[in-house]
Design brief:
The complex is a heterodimer. Chain A is built from 1 helix and 5 strands; from the N terminus they run ββαβββ. By secondary structure, chain A is mainly β. Chain A has a single domain, classed as Ubiquitin-like (UB roll) (Roll), CATH 3.10.20. Chain A has a 5-stranded mixed β-sheet, with no helix packed on it. In chain A, a hairpin with a 2-residue loop joins strand 1 and strand 2. The radius of gyration of chain A is 11 Å and the shape is globular. Chain B is of the alpha/beta class. Chain B is built from 9 helices and 10 strands. The longest helix of chain B is centred in the last third of the chain and has 21 residues. Chain B is globular. The N and C termini of chain B lie far apart (about 45 Å). Classes of the chains: A mainly beta, B alpha/beta. At the A-B interface, strand 3 and strand 5 of A face strand 4 and helix 3 of B.
Chain lengths: ~60, ~260
């Protein structure tokens, strides 16, 4: 199915946020994930399903003052 | 030098560093070390799906350093709350530099949204350090809303203009019951020293260090300036003469050569 990750259309063949994290090889630390504008704590990734057209935002650290 | 205490946590250094605009992560890391800072800000960005860049986090993460994620890029209180939740999840800290500046030209903070966001974030358990206008009334309101510090600007972000808001910062310091951190616009160690002499609790410096010809040496210079300014403040500065006051001798005036 298709979802968007950081506004980019992405083919995804899993079911949960955990599956997406595995597909994208997200690091163990230093990232946060939101699905449809709601932050999903890592402890809930497994239990959070991703539906067709879900909008996922993934952030990490950047330099800034 | 007295320790700085914010939200119950002690800091030996009164210089906070921003991590923006360094020419490399390596130089940033060296400047952080040279500055002796124990608080470093960072921002957030969306990951690239084929991301191979050097992770900046490993250059600033250190047991002695409190990470201070900022909310740069948000336009209102609701976006700030969302950004704060993302930051807490990603970096494992509930400390937050709240900054809401919707206008990209001057990057001046939106006072109404900053106050609203402070109220919400404090209720959500965040330690909120708001970047704000040098507005003594607003600073009291932020404190009442539960802000851990207030961080009034000296001048617009990145301008290096120094203490353009000096008289207001003086009033803020006089009234504040929380630490006052002078943030934004500090362009030279002398500006930082002056803020500290006035009784500011700390200074947050970024551009003046990161774009200096030699950022590592400049970080040291700021360290010394902040320490000197604080030491002078704690020592009690002498009174300044008023305009109509004549000179006051610091040597005995006996005319020993003529006797």
């Amino acid at each position: 199915m298709k979802i968007t990750v950081n506004n980019k259309e992405t083919e995804f063949d899993g079911t949960s946020v955990s599956d997406l994290a595995a597909q994208l090889q997200l690091p163990e630390k230093g990232v946060a994930v939101a699905v449809n504008n709601e932050m999903i704590p890592r402890s809930e990734w497994q239990a959070t399903p991703l539906a067709e057209n879900a909008s996922v935002v993934i952030i990490k650290a950047a330099c800034g003052g | 030098m007295e320790k700085l205490v914010i939200a119950g946590k002690e800091f030996g250094s009164r210089l906070f560093l921003g991590s923006g605009k360094f020419s490399s992560n390596q130089i940033m890391e060296e400047a952080i070390k040279a500055s002796g800072t124990e608080m470093v800000t960072l921002a957030m960005k969306r990951i690239e799906l084929d991301d191979k860049e050097d992770d900046m986090l490993k250059h600033i993460a250190h047991p002695n350093i409190q990470l201070l994620p900022n909310t740069s890029g948000v336009r209102d209180a609701d976006e700030a709350v969302f950004a704060a939740q993302m930051a807490r999840e990603a970096f494992g800290t509930n400390w937050l530099k709240l900054e809401i500046h919707p206008d990209p030209r001057y990057l001046l903070p939106d006072s109404v949204e900053t106050l609203k966001a402070t109220e919400k974030l404090v209720k959500l358990g965040f330690v909120v350090l708001p970047y704000c206008q040098a507005d003594p009334v607003l600073c009291r309101q932020l404190e009442e809303a539960g802000a851990a510090t207030v961080m009034p600007l000296a001048a617009p972000i990145g301008t290096n203009k120094g203490l353009e808001t000096k008289e207001f910062i003086r009033i803020i310091i006089e009234q504040a019951g929380v630490p006052v951190v002078v943030d934004a616009g500090i362009g030279a160690p002398s500006h930082a020293a002056e803020a500290m002499e006035m009784g500011a609790s700390a200074c947050l410096v970024n551009t003046a260090i990161s774009v200096a010809g030699n950022p590592v040496e400049m970080a040291k210079a700021f360290k010394m300036a902040v320490e000197a300014g604080r030491m002078a403040y704690e020592s009690g500065l002498g009174a300044v003469a008023t305009n109509n006051m004549v000179a006051s001798a610091s040597s005995p005036l006996t005319a020993f050569l003529n006797e």
